[in-house]
Sequence to fold (454 residues):
Amino acid sequence: MSTLTKIPGSFDKPHDAAKTETNVSASQNAEGDPHLVVLEPEDNPQNMSLFRRWLAVLIISSASLCAAFTEQGVAQTFHVSHEVTILGISLFVVGLGSGPLLVGPLSEVYGRNVVYQISYVLFFIFTFPVVFAPNIAVFLVFRLITGFCGSAFLSVAGGSVSDMFPDSSIASPMAVYTISPFIGPHLYWEWTYRVQLCWIFVEFLMLATFVPETYVPVILKKKARRLRKSTGDPKIYAPLDRREGTLTSAILISCYKPFQLLLFDRMVLLLDSWNALILGILYLAFQAFPIIFEDIHGFNVQTTGLALYARETARYNGDPPPEVRLIMGQVGAILVPVGLFCLAFTTYPQVHWIAPIIASVPFGSGIYFVFTSTFTYLVTAYRPIAATAMASDSALRFTFAAVFPLFAGAMYDRLGTVGATALLAGLSTIMAPLPFIFYRIGARLRKNSRFAAH
Fold:
């Protein structure tokens, strides 16, 4: 075989493709097996053109636009209470949180593309019953199913980004990936999901046409299959061809790995818990903002939506260790409680409506900083199981996000806008020290972790 890039046979330990040694021949690999297929530079997804990698990132990230949700008009259409319409959001979010536990690890067995394509075909099919639901029961059941089917972008997309970009340049694409779920249509419910249906179809076509397979073990497996066919040599193989155990056991092992991360890696557990609390507060805010702006300040739905989103963009240069990614999280950890405290004490009717809007800017910016920081940290510190690391994060985040909106109305009725929002600010303050702590001791914890890159 020609001069190649070595890829280890085991994929249980993190590996940064950008840091592998080049110009290593097949006969020099660790297994000493000339039939083992290894990665040539032109096959490495990190060596694709910058345009092609960014096009793939934008297409994958735009998949999050399909995760639209709205409750406007649902209560009137199906003649149900407001709490039941919130249940529709919660069930969708439950699907978003549970789906990555399956599709994230499976993408590390079968590859990213097959997971994307199957997920979006099913997402497209099961969105029809949502759009044309004859009753609330059908609507709720299929909101759960579509959340599950459309959840691939939550974990697999993070894995794709880590496949295509080395640590030195991963921050910007991860920032794009992080902000994309917060953008989407907000119309009357039937039109929201009709727009969503059209976009799912377009998204599938773009995924199938422009997004290449990026997971190195699967690239090697496909290459070995091609070489066996072209050379007639049945002995050629890739590391994935020699996995021990049955296919079922391999899938089961992959699927419980997110739970292993949560149970045995303290950094993952605490960072995921912080993300979960922040996302729970954000989804609760989706219920709180109408109370603050519509009930108190007389806004309509469209003008309320303008107050929900605030964005910032950050870039990192050089090749920093994963802990450097937490600097942005430190800023976010301060901005989120500051924004919430300011929001709490500007919700009085006598306070001009511009004040809570201004207060929501640090809140929204802080959330973006927290997620960008944590997501980037996870995919750089836990290569090449980035999709699994993101799956564990998604599961915990969306569990909180599904539950919090259910008690938002009751909490604001009982505590008032000031007390309820201040309570959320206090909870976020408790978690604020985490990025500062892990910035200092993260390297030591990673060194002792069986999952993290050392």
The CA atoms of residues 236 and 406 lie 55 Å apart.
